[in-house]
Specification:
Blueprint (H helix, E strand, L loop, with lengths): L8 H7 L3 H8 L9 H10 L2 H8 L3 H11 L3 H6 L25 E6 L8 H9 L5 E7 L4 H10 L2 E8 L2 E7 L22 E3 L8 H10 L5 E6 L4 H9 L2 E8 L4 E8 L13 E7 L5 H7 L3 H4 L2 E8 L5 H7 L5 E5 H9 L4 E9 L3 E5 L13 E4 L6 H12 L8 E4 L7 H9 L4 E4 L3 H7 L5 E6 H8 L7 E8 H6 L1 H20 L1 H8 L7 H10 L1 E6 L4 H11 L7 H8 L2
Helix pairs in contact: 1-3, 3-8, 10-21, 11-20, 11-21, 16-17, 17-22, 21-22
Length: 568
């Protein structure tokens, strides 16, 4: 292969990758090519003539050097000077017709940009308003960019202001810089908008899912993360996305490209999708929610505007009170409190049961008697359900709760401190619910024990009521009234998702382990212990009444009031 002036750098490097070092050594400007992403972009669109112009180096010297390196020096000399010819298709002497119709050129100066700025160009092009175009200012003639826009069929016009300032004016074409269906999408990665979740203070799951939901068939996005999130990739595969991953070793991150395939579905979409805000007060629902997102039928009917799984559990209550959330997964006790203060909601089902455990580290407790001399590290505050249920069971089994020492955690949020103190051995007696109970046991070794399971103690008190109703599905009444078909479909898909998780625990763990920030084995351990069962609230009124009277004596719901919350 003789390398000539019009040879694409990409073609040469695919056959002779050792030439990259020669290009980088030629000019200070080419040091950016050590960045894999920048190099791939330039290599894809630039010719060796372009490289010589950008670096302000002799094309003859460059071609002589690279051909000598690959043993083609003699063959190059045979075709000199034809080897340095170039086409003039990129040179524009007159302004195009569209130029004068643009009312405003938005400026983006990249002369001091050190990183990979091409995605930012695409982002800014997508943000343009009608009758606007983008001007990219660079310190050299951006030939690779021009070649790319020309090949893609986009409109552009370039101007040389002086030797150190070049303007490239770009007008988005009708395809809105989308992915060309006639070309392999993996050859168009430079057109994927970025979603960078590195350093995001909150769990990025809902942000990623909201973004994925907005992607139309034939479009895509690139997720930037410090690791390769295989469960998320697997889930998006099920939602119709193909994926491709590049590791950026220079920046210590991964770029995961997702492309939504324009395949036909057996599910017919009739009318507009219903926009919904979905939230959960607990991460225990992650495996269930992720499975529901794989439902073709459900996803063909709804558009998820927000999907929030709270670490600050009290914030979900504000969303309910302010009518921001259409669908909520929340504790039964929280639902009753909200309903008591006038929240217009229905609790449709209980889906999470029997998740109270008293764990010990360094000793085994066979009854409450064995923990009298230990401090019980307890989530939330003393009137909250964990303490209320504990004291009720103690009393019913003949113990005086005042004989025990409780130390309370922060009044809201997840009990991460209690879990971590148990794992480290700082706390030897803790009261936890799932998923923290399982993660605490899994990460503590052989010295940790599930000493008291409240479901078993509950059974000792009343063998006819063996389950503790923990949390379930809440609807905003407006959503239930306006979209009954969608509401019923969601209930149906929820039951299917729970059945699937119960029967496919290893697969469910692989789907959700990184989002739960645990190992796959830890999540599988949790799923083997968690009690998921979908039961409509109208079928368990007695169990709910008993539980509410225990955890919230102030509520004092009579049967008629309870019907308003639990029957639909």
């Amino acid at each position: 292969m003789i390398i000539k002036g019009d040879t694409k750098v990409k073609d040469a490097l695919e056959k002779h990758p050792e030439l990259k070092a020669i290009l980088v050594s030629y000019s200070r400007k080419f040091k950016k090519l050590n960045n894999k992403l920048i190099f791939n972009t330039v290599a894809k669109w630039a010719t060796f003539n372009d490289v010589s112009k950008i670096g302000k180096i002799s094309i003859c010297d460059l071609l002589h050097t690279v051909n000598t390196a690959i043993g083609e020096e003699e063959n190059l000399e045979k075709i000199f000077p034809e080897c340095i010819k170039e086409t003039n298709g990129l040179q524009q002497k007159t302004k195009p017709e569209w130029y004068d119709k643009v009312k405003q050129f938005v400026i983006y100066d990249v002369r001091n940009e050190e990183g990979y700025f091409f995605p930012e160009i695409i982002k800014r092009l997508k943000q343009l308003k009608p009758e606007q175009a983008l001007t990219v200012i660079n310190s050299f003639d951006p030939l690779p960019l021009k070649r790319m826009f020309e090949e893609k069929g986009d409109k552009y016009y370039s101007e040389k202001i002086n030797d150190n300032e070049f303007h490239l004016k770009i007008l988005p074409s009708e395809n809105d810089l989308g992915i060309n269906p006639e070309i392999d999408w993996k050859k168009q990665l430079d057109r994927f908008p970025e979603l960078n979740v590195i350093g995001m203070p909150e769990d990025p799951f809902e942000r990623i899912m909201k973004n994925a939901q907005s992607i139309k068939p034939g479009q895509g996005f690139v997720l930037i993360q410090v690791f390769q999130p295989m469960p998320l990739i697997n889930m998006l595969n099920q939602m119709g996305f193909e994926d491709y991953t590049e590791e950026d070793t220079e920046n210590n991150n991964f770029r995961i490209y997702f492309y939504k395939t324009p395949t036909k579905s057996n599910i017919k979409i009739t009318g507009e999708k219903v926009p919904l805000v979905i939230q959960s007060a607990t991460p225990i629902t992650y495996p269930i929610i992720m499975r529901m997102l794989q439902s073709d039928e459900l996803m063909s009917k709804i558009n998820i505007k927000e999907l929030k799984v709270w670490e600050e559990t009290e914030k979900h209550m504000a969303w309910i009170v302010n009518k921001k959330a259409d669908i909520t997964f929340s504790a039964v006790a929280a639902a009753t409190k909200l309903y008591a203060v006038g929240a217009d909601i229905k609790m449709i089902s209980v889906d999470i049961w029997d998740n109270f455990y008293l764990l010990t580290n360094g000793y085994k407790a066979n009854s409450f008697e064995d923990i009298k001399n230990h401090v019980i590290q307890t989530p939330l505050f003393k009137e909250a359900p964990p303490t209320a249920v504990t004291k009720y069971i103690m009393s019913e089994l003949g113990y005086n709760p005042d004989d025990f020492t409780f130390n309370y955690d922060k009044p809201f949020g997840r009990p991460d401190k209690i879990k971590n103190d148990f794992i480290s051995g700082k706390a030897d007696t803790v009261l936890l619910r799932e998923p923290e109970a399982s993660f605490a046991l899994f990460n503590s070794g052989d010295s940790a024990h599930e000493s008291l399971s409240y479901s078993k103690l509950w059974n000792q008190i009343d063998e006819n009521n063996t389950r503790l109703p923990n949390a379930g599905l809440i609807y905003k009444n407006d959503f239930l009234k306006n979209h009954p078909d969608i509401a019923n479909l969601f209930i149906s898909e929820l039951k299917k998702a729970i059945d699937w998780v119960n029967n496919n625990k290893k697969e469910a763990a692989m789907m959700s382990y990184d989002i739960l920030r645990q190992s796959p084995k830890a999540v599988e351990f949790f799923l083997n212990r968690a009690k998921f069962e979908h039961i409509l609230t109208k079928d368990i009124m007695d169990e709910l009444a008993r539980y509410i009277k225990i955890v919230d004596k102030k509520a004092a719901f009579d049967e008629e009031k309870m019907k308003g919350l639990f029957l639909f």
